[in-house]
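Record ABC-2 type transport system ATP-binding protein, 250 aa.
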Amino acid sequence: MVHVEVNDLSVKYGSYQALQHVSLNIPGGEYWILLGENGAGKSTLLRCLAIWMRPTEGSIAIDGYNTEHDERILRSRIKFVPDTPAFYAELTAWEHAELVATLHHLEDWNIHAQKLFQLFSLDQHKNAYPASYSRGMQYKLALLLSLLVKPDLLLLDEPFGPLDPASQSQLATVLGRLCRDEHMTVIVSTHLLPESIQPDHLVFLNQGRILLDQSWDMVIEKYPGAVSSLPYRLTYSLLEDSAGAEFSHE
Ligand SMILES: Nc1ncnc2c1ncn2[C@@H]1O[C@H](COP(=O)(O)OP(=O)(O)OP(=O)(O)O)[C@@H](O)[C@H]1O
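=>
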């Protein structure tokens, strides 16, 4: 289980401030949601956590290791699935799994891979090329390939976007189970909340700032019914609240 500490992180793209003084304390084995509208800074934060980019200011510690100084130690423990994953055109889905297993020196990975292909309903398509997959299937494949190596920290950028509602709910539930059973820390960026989602914690980002950083139980208590029938209502309620109120850390 890895504990993640984000300390006063800011990111600038030229003169544009994409993240402003973001601090988070994410206990190991928890399932966190980063909610925000387009351009809120979610992907930028995930890219910093994945060590795909460096912040302009501030620091990140993962399991006590600094992402700037201990990159080598951390890389094998973190998996990031971007919103548009890339694949090798000449390899089938199953051959991608073989490649990942070889690169990571995985032993006895075959049965685990079969189970993951079944879990994501891709077992009928495992000998097809990812280019022939739908966007949702491609995301599931990229996620499956990340899970094959059993990372300590799993970062998912907009996983629900390309999925149908049933698959969104299924994935939301699977992610919670992974945290519990595999002790994985999971951080998911999204602009929508599937109906059955039950994360441990929700962070709401708006224009690069944290407007809410609260346990899911407290979010549900404060915004009852926000998720079940109207997934967007929570975002609007949070934006309305933040117009005057101070943001809240719990
Ligand atoms: N490479 C870049 N160069 C310049 N500006 C960028 C770059 N990447 C992101 N931005 C800007 O930074 C802001 C935050 O972008 P980011 O992709 O982190 O937001 P997001 O919340 O993930 O949005 P989305 O839900 O649309 O993916 C946006 O205004 C975006 O235009």
